[in-house]
Amino acid sequence: MHQSEVLGKAMRILIIGAGYVGLSMGVILAEKHDVLLLEMDPSKVESINKGQSPIFEDKIAELLQNAIQSGRLKAQSPEGPLGYRDVVMVCVGTPSREDGSVNLSYVDDAMKLLFERVDEFCDNYTAVGIKSTVPPGTTKTLVLDKIEKGHFTDRLGAFFNPEFLREGTAIEDAKNPDRIIIGASNEKAASLVQRMYMESLGNKADNILTMSLESGELCKYVSNSFLATKISFANEIANITERIPGADFDSVVKGMAADSRICGKFFGSGAGYGGSCFPKDVSGLIMLAKNDLNVATHILQAAQRVNAERPQRILDFLKEHVSDIKGKKIAVLGIAFKPGTDDIRESPALKVMKQLSDNGANVWAHDPLLSRMEISEDIKNQINLTESINECLKNSDACILMTEWKEYIDMGLEAITDTMSNKLLIDGRRAFVNRDIPSGITYRAIGRPN
Ligand code: UDX
């Protein structure tokens, strides 16, 4: 398809699920298209229609306000009228089950709703697809088979279009994708999705890769699993460089990445990966391989194990300097799984705080977005949570940096340690590795020998 054929005509888009992905994509697509967002949480529907983002994402506020004011974006409950649509995209959650397999019930529910209402949203031809991360074969089962069984093949086409958005930079990432993957059941469905992006992103949609539904689904898992494995490899190398006096992790990485076959990006050692994606997707791929394919996943399971050991590595550093933490005040800076988000799902900080408290420490924790965080009652009962960095740090026997927020980096080591009883900083995210360490401060960074 050529760019010239498509520019200018707004398309009619339906997105089901107004979470990080659905809302981020909705506000971007609404710059050019007419977007209806179905969301089952009435408070989210209300705040979106008032132009107030229910999620904390850089650059989303202005885009949402413009989209609502222009009338090109509207949120409503699933029961509301759908209107005719060219593309329907399901962006609901696919959380891990207890055993690590993927819970597809929300996707299934969304598809049931759609297939009961085809005449409502399809006037000519509609591409119906999934953006949520789902195991290979899901789109065929939940979409394509339903199209065929319902005899909708002349009106509906199936697609899978993964997102590669990082929390905290979702808008940036969506506007500047490295690639757009379109798994599709036929050319007509693929070209509708392709047109949607070309209209919205213009020349930024210059790397559109079309493939089978199953290849698209697997590509998403493989991308996240490789990134997670890369982080665990970095952490394994850090475990080694920490024990070789004179070895410097950054120099080793620089030397390694000078090989044009090796990319040094995303090779940051530290407290390990958290969030709602890497842990879930690595588990999902492992369970798929084990339960459905009977294939061994030695590397993925090793990556998972290395990551699971990161909190203990941080605590080992602490123990080298504070042998008995019972009753000691330990300050933890950062609870979010990464800077730029209020999301604490699978955050390594929660694991470190819990282990400190379970071992008798008097734990204080701060995060710039604490007031927006959904902290569980048992963490609240164990940890002193404060919105004051100074209250967190005052008279503490050690400080552990768990999230590399700009606020902490800008403060600098002297200000952070100024009121501490024992000026010990364990840098779980290597935020200060390139700084000179003022005298009187004991500084330990992941990857660096003592
Ligand atoms: C990730 C993928 O990057 C994104 O493409 C996908 O769509 C969703 O999952 P996200 O989890 O939001 O995005 O954040 P990301 O920036 O990838 O960080 C994930 C975790 O890895 C964080 O806990 C972060 O602290 C950690 N990380 C990241 C490292 O430990 N080292 C690194 O070098 C990079």
Describe the model.
- By secondary structure, this protein is α/β, with parallel strands linked by helices.
- It folds into two domains: 3-211, NAD(P)-binding Rossmann-like Domain (Rossmann fold, 3-Layer(aba) Sandwich); 302-445, NAD(P)-binding Rossmann-like Domain (Rossmann fold), CATH 3.40.50.
- The protein has helices at residues 3-6, 20-29, 42-49, 60-70, 105-115, 118-121, 138-149, 170-175, 187-201, 213-241, 249-257, 278-293, 298-308, 310-319, 348-358, 377-382, 389-393, 406-417; strands spanning 12-16, 34-38, 73-76, 87-90, 126-130, 156-160, 180-184, 208-211, 329-333, 362-366, 384-386, 398-401, 424-427, 442-445.
- The strands form two sheets. The chain has an eight-stranded mixed beta sheet with strand order 3-2-1-4-5-6-7-8, with helices on both faces.
- Helix 10 (213-241) packs across helix 13.
- The longest helix is centred in the middle third of the chain and has 29 residues, at 213-241.
- It starts with a helix and ends in a 5-residue tail after the last strand.
- It binds uridine-5'-diphosphate-xylopyranose.
- Uridine-5'-diphosphate-xylopyranose is lined by residues 163-167, 224, 227, 231, 266-268, 270, 272-275, 277-278, 337-338.
What would a concise description of this structure say?
42% of the residues lie in helices and 14% in strands. By secondary structure, it is an alpha/beta fold. Uridine-5'-diphosphate-xylopyranose binds next to helix 10.
**Rg (C-alpha, Å):** 24 Å
Q: Per CATH, what is the topology of the largest domain?
A: Rossmann fold
Determine the CATH superfamily of the largest domain. NAD(P)-binding Rossmann-like Domain
Top CATH class of the largest domain: Alpha Beta
Q: Please report the total strand number as a whole number.
A: 14
Note the gap between the termini.
58 Å
- Individual helix count: 18
List the bound ligands. uridine-5'-diphosphate-xylopyranose
Helix content percent band: 40-55%
- Category by helix and strand content: alpha/beta
**Per the principal axes of the C-alpha atoms, what is the gross shape?**
elongated
**Average residue-wise pLDDT:** 96
CATH-level-2 architecture of the largest domain? 3-Layer(aba) Sandwich
Low-confidence segments, given as residue ranges, are 1-6
Which strands sit side by side, in order, in the main sheet? 3-2-1-4-5-6-7-8
Q: Name the beta content range.
A: 5-15%
Characterize the main sheet: 8 strands, mixed
Q: Number of folding domains?
A: 2
